Amino acid sequence: MNDNIHTLNQMLDNAAIRFMKKTALIFGAKKVSYGQLSSRSAKLASALYNLGVREFDKVALWLPNCPEFIYSFFSILKLRAIVVPVNTMFKREEAKFVIEDSQARVLICSVDKAFDSENILSRINTLSHLICLSELPGRKSVLDFNRLINTHPEFSNTLRVKSEDIAEIVYTSGTTGKPKGACLSHRNILTNIKDCARVIHFSKRDCLICILPLFHSFSSTVCMCLPLYKGAKIIIMRAVRPFKRVIRTIFKYRVTIFVGVPSIYNIISEVKLSRRRSLLNSLFNPVRIYISGAADLPLAVWHKFKAKFKRPLLQGYGLTEASPVVSLNPLGRDDKPNSVGLALPSLKVKVVDHNNREVASGMVGELLVKGDSVMAGYHNLPEETKNVLRQGWLHTGDLAKIDEQGFIYIMGRLKEMINVRGFNVYPREIEDILYKHPKVKEAAVVGVFHRHRGEVPIAFVVGEQGIKEKEVLEYLRANIASYKVPLKLVLKDSLVKNSTGKILKRKLKEEIEDIFL
User: Fold this and answer.
1) β-bridge pairing 129-132 and 207-210
2) Which of the chain's termini has less CB crowding within 10 Å, N or C?
3) Dihedral, CA atoms, 69, 73, 74, 75, nearest 10 degrees?
């Protein structure tokens, strides 16, 4: 039956029919059935239609993790309109850029974003309406989310949504400049959902805990759409901290799928467990699969986590432009933990040199991806689209190698590769060595231009108390070639990250260029 689903609208309608009374969402004490999810989405769709939202209009969501995000997501799609998620960590002007660039007609926000949203509403001509999750007395420019749902019937118009229609415009994190809006169609997202379901054997019996932000494509596809596609249960949480609450939730609701980012697994692997708690985690832990994505998973973190929790930790790789998952380690294989796994079933991948020629197995080059989950293009950026989508292949900008069995290894960003006196140095290689040092908690390596030496590697390290720059550099000299050893090691209390835990190397590079060189 699922094979006949061609749009995300059909996906929810199908689930609502098959699992009408089954719990779809749990948020604190609130439980929402599949029937209620469908009904509330349809009522909000009516409200948005009455506000003038029509086919291919954009509606922006500046919302934290909550059921209202999911109601809004599907209500917009019912109108054949387009969802524009906005990063909840964005400040006012960053959010304004996304809303203005996408030409959103309506903005749905949380209470804490209401003041900034009103300011944005007054400054963008294309933005017509502002909806807030709670009523704000005396604020006539702000519509109440719940009142709209409670005063409108379910949307009954039948709009012919097509698989090639754009469902979402997801803005990239902007780690290398201004965010770009990746246009993802219903086909793009559904293809990725079906691939992921097949690889991890996802079923209606699974229960997934969603702690990653829903505005991010990784969470939107894997933590929201994938469970709904299969009729599974989603436990929505606002944040990963305090982690004790997450642990309690996992046991209370018998969570079977845990999706996180490397920084979360780093935290978990460092959590001190009592002897009893350790025994419970190894014997009665309901989680059958842990999945890591959105950033590189250090090998040392993988080993520590596996030793503590005795469960599969599957590392994957993806990017927004691919909806987003490209590869995942298969179940039952833990012999290549430093790999990001095999390409998903519907995708083709290859590695090419700077002349766009495919390289031999094991050689490093740029990773290219081809398949139905690759985006349609960037919103209103034809030149950037033409540059990244060439001859049907998505140029990821990531350095990788593929072994003879097809396992992919990410070596870093193409722009991050460091040319040291004619030798190619890959930051990931140095970082993996650093993570093996007993006193290193986090590490990042960047390349900067030195006026006398040319391009050189610089390492940033968060370590345990008492760690010394000299001892770490001596450790590196004993384990890697001399030209790979960083010119300087900077000890930090923390490393700046984006909303999904990816270290912002651009910020680190700016810091060292301003201060050190």
Assistant:
1) unpaired
2) N
3) 90
Q: What tokens were used for 437?
A: 């040092």
* Distance between CA atoms of residues 372 and 172, nearest Å: 19
| Interstrand relation of 389-390 and 393-402 (parallel, antiparallel or unpaired) | antiparallel
CA distance linking residue 200 with residue 292, whole number of Å: 13
Q: CA–CA separation, 513 vs 323, rounded Å?
A: 34
Pick the CATH number of 417-515 from 3.40.50.11030, 3.10.20.90, 3.30.300.30, 3.40.50.1480: 3.30.300.30
Residue 75: exposure state from Cβ atoms within 10 A (0-12, 13-18, ≥19): buried
Distance of CA 64 to the CA centre of its chain: 14
pLDDT of residue 229: 97
Model confidence at 498, in pLDDT bands (50, 70, 90)?
A: confident
> Which CATH fold topology does 2-17+33-186 show?
Rossmann fold (3.40.50)
Which pLDDT tens digit goes with each residue over 234-276?
A: 999 988 777 788 888 999 999 999 998 887 887 777 766 655 5
E strands within 377-481? 377-378, 389-390, 393-402, 408-413, 418-420, 423-425, 440-450, 454-463
- Backbone region of residue 377 per phi and psi (left: phi > 0; alpha: psi in -120 to 50; beta: other values): left
Distance, in Å, from the CA atom of 271 to the CA atom of 301, rounded to the nearest integer, reads 12
> Is the entire prediction scored with pTM above 0.70?
yes
